[in-house]
């Protein structure tokens, strides 16, 4: 492995470890919004895709990724990549498990599911696994989550909506 490859790997690892400000158990890599990190003329360039256009955390995430790269010893720059747009399908399996363990039901696969895109999917309780749940509100603590309640264990929970 070349010095450049090692440096790019180190830059990726620094950027990938940045937590999401809204769901701190997830990293930007878990969410799939860190598209890549490369070295260009000695500058670590991180490519980041917002989860959606109006996401209030976009700037905070970009600044945190830039700071992580600088803290790792790199000159840094962020490139916002909007095409192709992010989808919840980009959340890693590890990220989905972290959501579940944190008490948030992960989104269904959306790529080929019109039903999932329009919220017509079964949402399993992240605590007990029951599929006997009901939506209480289309919007939760953030626009990308909805409030649900499990009819089996009676616990409320959030569901990360399919985008």
From TrEMBL:
One Pfam family of this chain: FeS_assembly_P
Span of domain MIP18 family-like: 12-71
InterPro entries, per the entry: Fe-S_Maturation_MIP18, FSCA_dom_sf, MIP18-like, PaaD-like, Zn_ribbon_PaaD
Ranges for domain PaaD zinc beta ribbon: 113-161
Gene3D superfamilies with a match to the protein in the record: Fe-S cluster assembly (FSCA)
UniProt cross-references to SUPFAM superfamilies, sorted A to Z: Fe-S cluster assembly (FSCA) domain-like (SSF117916)
Signal peptide: none
NCBIfam families assigned: PA_CoA_Oxy4 (TIGR02159)
UniProt-recorded name of the protein: Ring-1,2-phenylacetyl-CoA epoxidase subunit PaaD
Organism: Allgaiera indica
